[in-house]
Amino acid sequence: MCWKKALAIAVIFILCIFQAGCSGGFHDRNESAGQEGAANDYIVVGFSQLGAESDWRNENTESMKSSFTEENGYTLIFEDGQQKQANQIRAIRMFIQQEVDYIVLAPVMETGWDTVLQEAKDAGIPVIIVDRKVDVSDEGLFTCWVGSDFELEGKKAAEWLNQYATEKGIESGDIHVVNIQGTKGSSAQIGRTKGLADAARANGWDLMAEVIGDFTRAKGKEVVESLLKQYNNINVVYCENDNEAFGAIEAIEEAGRKAGSNIAGGEIMVISFDGVNEEAIQYMLDGKIICIAECNPLHGPRVQAIIELLEKGGTPEKWQYVDEEIYSVDETVKRLTIEGADYEVTILRQKDKK
Ligand code: GZL
Question: Is the pLDDT confidence value at 79 over 50?
């Protein structure tokens, strides 16, 4: 009789150990992210960055890395998706396996995230989206989003062009613009493309082509080289980021044309987005980029504040837009009005060189 009792006690003891080992959901920071046993109360953040395609992206990565430091109380696990969604999904699954405390995702495109974000939700790990948006069936799959209003950026750039043309007496039908688009399906591409397309339709501009430049200098140069061979009347090149603009200007100059503001004199106006570093500012000071709609990459401090609020049991705003300006060296357009809101144009001068 006593052997049966002993066996029952042994079975119960083994089941208890098994249950503790498989708890899964319990989040013990000492065990998470491979920190077995180490006395470690760092908040573990898994950051899936989409790539390193542009100066903006590098500034965004730097902002996140300088916020989530050990001296600030964090362990950051950084994964570069190399512009491929499959890599980002793999990274998120790795973060789930490592039982990180938070996942931050900078999504390469808007669609295709429902399944993996559901897996993170099922694992009890909050997900914060930064920069571009995700298009999911249930917005409860992420805690909140920090980024830019890309369509407003596009509207600002297009309205700047509209006011410039009006002031200079350039007929709408004489604006022959090509759009060098960002990564297809990214929020930045969708918003900036819509901003221009809507303005072209409303103002009667000749929007001749929309071609993917993938936010890179090399692709920007390649597609503008091709467009300049195809059309001889392009006078505005709308680049959806600065790196594309740098490539476009190379192509313009190698074709024997000039990037500038004198459309009537045969120059080609280059309009761009981001404005994150001195190279972009210098292109404006040199008169080669006429206008840049700023895109703010500094999301690190905001995401850190969101996590600190969550740690205290708070609820962050779901949609958090960063503030952005519009820059030019040309003083023709000083203020924009878009849907009733006024935006000052920041006029740069040589002293503004960073
Ligand atoms: C915008 C961001 C874009 C930048 C590009 O928030 O997603 O991606 O404008 C970057 O420079 O590559």
Answer: yes
Q: What is the pLDDT of residues 182-234, one digit of tens each?
A: 999 999 999 999 999 999 999 999 999 999 999 999 999 999 999 999 999 99
Task: Yes or no: say if 172 and 203 are a contact pair by the CB < 8 Å rule.
Answer: yes
- Pocket-forming residues, ligand 1, beta carbon under 6 Å: 53-54, 56-57, 131-132, 148, 182, 186, 188, 215, 241, 273-274, 295
Cα separation of the two ends of the chain: 86
Complete edge-to-edge strand list for the sheet that includes strand 326-328:
206-212, 176-181, 236-239, 269-274, 291-294, 326-328, 341-347, 335-338
pLDDT tops 70 at residue 22: no
Q: Which amino acid is at 6?
A: A
Rg (CA), the chain: 25
Alpha carbon nearest to ligand 1 atom 6, residue: 131
pLDDT at 235: 98
| Atom of ligand 1 minimally distant from the CA of 274 | 9
CA of 215, closest atom in ligand 1: 12
Confidence of residue 349 (pLDDT cuts 50, 70, 90): confident
In the predicted model, what is the mean pLDDT of residues 105-122?
98
Q: What is the pLDDT of residues 302-335, one digit of tens each?
A: 999 999 999 999 999 999 999 999 999 999 999 9
Please indicate whether residue 16 or residue 313 has the higher confidence score (pLDDT). 313
Q: Which residue in 180, 226, 236 sits closest to 203, CA to CA? A: 236
